[in-house]
Amino acid sequence: MNAVDTNVLFYAHDPRHPGKRDIATELIASLYEGVLLWQVACEYLFASRKLEPHGYSRSHAVADVKDMRRTWSTAIPNWATLDRAEQLRAGYRLSFWDALLVAACLDAGVTRLYSEDFQAGVQIDSLEIVNPFE
Prior knowledge:
By secondary structure, this protein is an alpha/beta fold. About 50% of the residues lie in helices and about 15% in strands.
């Protein structure tokens, strides 16, 4: 199973970075076994406000999240996810938010996370993290 980080969703709609937009759009369209992580959906809805000056409204972002929910499964964290995130944060020296994202992926059975926020080729337990823009 695959998941994408907020930055991938954001770039799919960001006209300021056409190269990244094309890569992100193609990647998202190709992921048939995708998991939409709760944290990513929330961060994306919040971050999408930065695209309003470029014609991408909050209603567009809400519609995109609804579309992804129809196509991908949704993973909502629980208290065990928070506990696991704290272990990952300490063990791998991750930021809290990155550890929470990784914990949510592991709990949801995600084996590949696409994100530009990690070093290339990072493997955390059973999760491979891939930067699609490299």
